Amino acid sequence: QASPPEEKIKTLDKAGVLHRTKTVDKGKRVRKKHWSTSWTVLEGGILTFFKDSRTSAAVGLRQPPKLSTPEYTVELKGASLAWAPKDKSSKKNVLELRSQDGSEYLIQHDSEAIISTWHKAIAQGIQELSAG
Ligand code: I3S
């Protein structure tokens, strides 16, 4: 059914604390993998990872850290998402997100339930933006 795109995207909005690391920056492999815990927001087809901060983990789902600025923003249009192969990380529940500009991110949470909701929300966001 043809509902306005903004209406579809709005229903996918999601925010929470995730572990993430950038592995490829616009086609160039990042030399040193550095995991950060960060407040993450999915809104309007854009996934935003906020800067690493101590408050980021502490505030949890209650509210985003107020003075934090975005570190990475990933446009979901043209992106792809998959469970990361074992050689990408020894951690469990790792997702690999590839953006259209050739960057790659690993996204992880110890809780399978939590990572699954992110998987679903990001995958649906990608699908809806590509379908339009
Ligand atoms: O792909 P790598 O090099 O095994 O990634 C690990 C490193 O980034 C490591 O940092 P140090 O080299 O400073 O110890 C991290 O602590 C690990 O978490 C990384 O591996 P995992 O498998 O956790 O993504």
Q: Any ligands, ions or cofactors bound here, and which?
A: (1S,3S,4S)-1,3,4-triphospho-MYO-inositol
Secondary-structure-based class equals alpha+beta
Number of strands: 8
Residue share in β-strands: 35-45%
In terms of quaternary structure, the protein is single chain
* Termini separation: 12 Å
Specify the biggest β-sheet.
8 strands, antiparallel
Number of helices: 3
Poorly predicted ranges: none
H/E element sequence: HEEEEHEEEEH
Q: Which outline best applies? A: globular
Assign a percent range to the helix content.
10-25%
Radius of gyration: 14 Å
Integer average pLDDT: 85
Q: What's a concise summary of this model?
A:
Residues 11-127 form the PH domain. The chain contains three helices and eight strands, in the order αββββαββββα.
Describe this structure in words.
This protein has 3 helices and 8 strands. Strands 1, 2, 3, 4, 5, 6, 7 and 8 form an 8-stranded antiparallel β-sheet that branches. The protein is α+β, with helices and mostly antiparallel strands. It is globular, with a radius of gyration of 14 Å. The longest helix has 20 residues, at 112-131. The termini are close together. It has helices at 5-10, 54-59, 112-131, and strands spanning 14-25, 28-29, 36-43, 46-50, 70-75, 80-83, 94-98, 104-108. The chain binds (1S,3S,4S)-1,3,4-triphospho-MYO-inositol (I3S). (1S,3S,4S)-1,3,4-triphospho-MYO-inositol (I3S) is lined by residues 33, 35, 89-91. Residues 11-127 form the PH domain. This is Rho GTPase activating protein 27. It comes from Myotis myotis.
